[in-house]
Amino acid sequence: MSKIDVLCRNYQRICGLPWDRNVAGPQRVWLAVYDKEDERKLRLRIGRFEEATRALGCSWHHLDLTDAFARWLGSPPYADFADSYFAAPTKLPQSALAHFKKTVAGSLRDAFRSLEFPDRTVVAVSGVASLFGFVRISEVLPLVDGHIPGRLLVFFPGVYENNNYRLLDARDGWNYHAVPITCDEGGLRG
Prior knowledge:
The protein is α/β, with parallel strands linked by helices. Helices cover 38% and strands 19% of the residues. Helix 1 packs parallel to helix 2 and helix 5 packs across helix 6. The longest helix is centred in the middle third of the chain and has 20 residues, at 94-113. The protein starts with a helix and ends in a 9-residue tail after the last strand. The mean pLDDT is 89.
C-alpha cells in the first residue's frame, strides 16, 4: 500500500469519528502531512479522499490554491505590480503580500459560506506549497479557523515532528493545535 493510500485510510478513520461541534477552530483543522516528493501522487489521488468522505455521509468541497498568487497578481490593483514583480521578485512590497494573505484567507471563508451542509462538510485545500515564499500557511490558518463550520482538511507537503509542522521541510516549524494525519500506520500523531 502506498504512503498516500495509507494517508487516505488514516484520514477516513479520523473523518469517521464523531465531530464535536464544541471544539475550538484550530481543532477543526486536519493537516494531512505527506512527503513533499509525493505531491503529484497526492494530487492524482485527491478523488479517493473525496470518495472516503462521501462514503461516511459527509459532504466535500475542494479548493486548490495552486494558482492563487497568479490570480491575485493579475487582479486589480495588484496587476500594476506584475511587471515590477517579474523584474525583481524579492522587491514586492510587504503591504502587497499582507493583502495577498488576506485574499487567501478570504477565499477560504468564501468557501465556508458557500456550503450547502456546512456542519458536515470537509473543505479540502490543496496547493499550499505554491504559497511558499509569499505567505505562510501558519499565518493564514489563524485568520480562518474561527469560521470553520465543519472541518478543514489541508493537504500539507512537509513534516510533522515534535508537535511542529514544517512546510516543504524548509522553515522552522510552528506549533498549531490541528489534528495531524500522517502516512504512518498509526495515522494520528501527537
